[in-house]
Design a protein that fits this description.
The structure is a single chain. About 20% of the residues lie in helices and about 20% in strands. It is α+β, with helices and mostly antiparallel strands. Among the domains are: about 35 residues; about 60 residues. The strands form two sheets. A four-stranded antiparallel sheet has the order 4-5-6-7, with no helix packed on it. Strands 1-2-3 form a three-stranded antiparallel sheet, with no helix packed on it. A hairpin with a 3-residue loop joins β5 and β6.
């Protein structure tokens, strides 16, 4: 049976760590009681707190300056008259300069710009018996097929298909335009 003592380096390291752990535990236990016992010398009895405030013995903290503390105790707060519990301070009254009256100028009568023309061109139509009329419209290389009431190119609504023209509305600009049904 192997105990783990075959490797001497590991054994020494383990024993050293165990001794170090025991020392740290003892130090923690002793330091818990240590500062209280060390702060009071054995031959001097502990001072009892005095009932009166007027008597001042030697201060416990030698860096404490009791003369400055007494000055602050005797100070009276006079204040500025501002209510610290009010969320808004009153605004100071500053005389405002007199501004000349503003004369409104009549608006310029500019006519709104005309809506842009609809770029669709007639390409052809289809008319089968029993079906609604279809029209082919082109914009550049794109060709759109639509019936009455359809919206082509996500912008133009076909209002009416007649024998000689197609009435189209630009739904973005509310512009109606008739496109003639001619070849060309």
């Amino acid at each position: 049976m192997k105990v783990g003592a075959e490797n001497k380096k590991k054994l020494y390291a383990m024993v050293g760590l165990a001794v170090l752990a025991v020392l740290m535990v003892l130090r923690a236990i002793l330091s818990f009681n240590g500062p209280v016992a060390a702060s009071i010398p054995h031959g001097i009895p502990a001072e009892q707190p005095e009932a009166g405030r007027g008597k001042s013995g030697p201060p416990l903290d030698p860096t404490l300056r009791t003369d400055l503390l007494k000055n602050s105790e005797e100070a009276q707060y006079k204040g500025t008259g501002r209510n610290i519990f009010d969320s808004q301070a009153p605004l100071p009254k500053i005389p405002q300069p007199i501004k000349p009256p503003v004369v409104p100028q009549p608006p310029l009568a500019e006519a709104p710009p005309p809506p842009p023309p609809i770029p669709l061109k007639f390409y052809g139509f289809a008319n089968k018996p029993g079906e609604p009329k279809s029209v082919f419209l082109a914009q550049g290389d794109d060709i759109f097929i639509g019936h009455e009431g359809d919206i082509v190119n996500r912008r133009y609504k076909i209002i009416r298909i007649q024998q000689n023209q197609v009435e189209i509305e630009d739904v973005l600009n509310n512009n109606r335009q008739a496109i003639p049904l001619t070849q060309g």
